[in-house]
Write a structure and sequence with these properties.
Elements (H helix, E strand, L loop, with lengths): L1 H6 L9 H16 L6 H17 L1 H12 L3 H27 L2 E3 L8 E9 L2 E5 L7 H12 L3 E5 L5 H14 L5 E3 L4 H8 L5 E5 L2 H13 L4 E4 L6 E3 L5 H14 L18 H12 L7 E3 L3 E2 L4 E2 L2 E4 L6 H4 L6 E4 L5 H9 L6 E5 L3 H10 L4 E4 L20 E2 L4 H7 L1 E9 L14 H5 L1
Helix pairs in contact: 2-8, 3-5, 4-5, 4-7, 5-6, 6-15
The protein binds nicotinamide-adenine-dinucleotide.
């Protein structure tokens, strides 16, 4: 990947509050000209994103490899092709999404008509995480553009090659007067969060989510928080265990959800030594290390941890209390499946919850009684790829949702509009309310 260093240059100048204010000002001025509102502008930007993905597949794949050792096939399936299909869906459906929706009127307003009209919010900020650094950056931007907003993207500094490539590609392919990338970490994000936005869309952990929400509250800015947490999978005893195990393992490791991924021949490294040490100490904790039934090997110089399964890990351990975000899978045993429902309900609401059973009654009970951002029955993670399903958390796992039309709606304001003519006016509704009027 020698070519990449020529392509990817680190950010040259510091980005502070003054620059952030200038940037937002510039984008707001462009937004106020109305250029982002037209169907034509939205479509042209979406088409350019699709073109960028097609033409830059190699450089994006290389950046993902450089940042995360992401295997090529996984980069293509989980990041490039997934993002492209969201873009193509938006191009196909945009006219329908933008069309005002006519609704019924009431006798009080007769004669009249009424519509729900979508309008762009204005200038929005997208802050993304490192584990799917291309998808988690571009997918919300597709929603922001579809809805006619100006947008600033702040990708994760923990995936620096992808972050700089996004900055370079956005300036080459997209309208620079309304769509921009700011690279950087905490100081740059803090400078951005101090500005007045019309929406902040954040993907990351709950700790930073709280910082984002507190900053947004100062300006009364609405937020979407796409957070994480633990995603439990419950397995009934009489299911096809081989299929259940394969699907859980795939969800955990093969698509980066455990952070590390099993590609065709290799295991990705842990993203950095901070996370390596965090995971290693989780595994070595008292009462946990002796619960390993598979894996457990670590290679600090290569930042690698093998896929590791642990059975009956103590409830009070940090592995059971904190988000793992790594290739460690603790399994706990319950005497009946409903006890598993109770375990999930006793913890913060997860981003996703999974149940493996053929029992339809149990399936219904799970869907009705367990709260989670999303669910998979006899499957893991694949619900995320369905563009007709909203993707987002509930409670501690997040606020708001996106994907497909939900992305468009997330970045739009639904304006209720009542239309009347000057006909049919009546004195009855206007004061003074005389006794004669009351009798009528
Ligand atoms: P993070 O919260 O550490 O960082 C996310 C973003 O916030 C980054 O762009 C980072 O630069 C910025 N940031 C970090 N500290 C900040 C601070 N003090 N002030 C302002 N900005 C700050 O998350 P991460 O490590 O990049 O990603 C991992 C987390 O993201 C996990 O918790 C995971 O569950 C979650 N996640 C959620 C989804 C989802 O779609 N719900 C997807 C991927 C990852």
């Amino acid at each position: 990947y020698a070519t990449l260093s020529a392509v990817v240059k680190p950010q040259e100048s510091a980005f502070d509050g003054k620059e952030a204010a200038l940037l937002v000002d510039e984008l707001r001025t462009s937004f106020n000209t109305g250029r982002t509102r037209s169907y034509e502008w939205r479509i042209s930007q979406l088409q350019n994103i699709a073109k960028m993905i097609d033409e830059q597949e190699k450089s994006i794949t290389e950046a993902l490899y450089q940042d995360l050792s992401k295997p090529e096939l996984e980069a293509f399936l989980a990041e490039l092709s997934n993002t492209k299909s969201s873009c193509m869906l938006a191009i196909k459906e945009l006219k329908n999404w933008m069309a005002p929706e006519t609704v019924k009127t009431s006798v009080t307003t007769f004669p009249s008509s009424a519509q729900i009209v979508s309008e762009p919010l204005g200038v929005v900020l997208v802050i993304s995480a490192w584990n799917f650094p291309f998808l988690l950056s571009v997918e919300p931007v597709i929603g922001a553009i579809s809805a006619g907003n100006a947008v600033v993207l702040k990708p994760s500094e923990i995936a620096p090659a992808t972050s700089s490539l996004l900055a370079k590609l956005f300036s080459e392919y997209l309208d620079e007067t309304t769509i921009r990338v700011v690279q950087g970490g905490v100081p740059e994000t803090t400078a951005l969060l101090d500005q007045k936005w019309d929406k902040i869309f954040f993907t990351g952990g709950a700790r930073v989510g709280r910082i984002v929400m507190a900053a947004a509250a100062k300006k009364l800015t609405p937020v979407v928080l796409e957070l994480g947490g633990k995603c439990p999978a419950l397995v009934d005893s009489d299911v096809n265990l081989q299929v259940a195990a394969r699907r859980i393992i795939t969800g955990k490791w093969a698509c980066n959800n455990g952070q590390a991924c099993i590609g065709s021949k290799d295991v990705s490294r842990i993203v950095n030594s901070f996370h390596f040490k965090r995971l290693e100490s989780m595994m070595k904790e008292n009462g946990v290390a002796n619960k390993i039934v598979h894996g457990g090997q670590t290679m600090e110089d290569k930042l690698k941890i093998s896929p590791t399964i642990l059975v009956d890990v103590p409830e009070e351990s940090s592995m059971m209390q904190e988000e793992i975000f790594g290739p460690l899978l603790p399994v706990i045993t319950v005497s009946k499946i409903e006890d598993g429902f109770q375990v999930i309900r006793s913890k913060p609401k997860p981003l996703a919850a999974y149940l493996f059973t053929d029992n339809k009654v149990l399936q219904n009970r799970f869907v009705e009684n367990v709260s989670a951002g999303g669910m998979g029955i006899n499957e893991t993670v694949l619900h995320v790829t369905m563009k007709d399903l909203p993707f987002g958390g509930v409670g501690e796992s997040g606020i708001g949702a996106y994907h497909g039309k939900f992305s468009y709606e997330t970045f739009s304001h639904k304006k209720g509009v009542l239309y009347r003519s000057f006909d049919g006016d009546s004195d009855l509704r206007y004061p003074p309310y005389t006794p004669e009027k009351k009798r009528v």
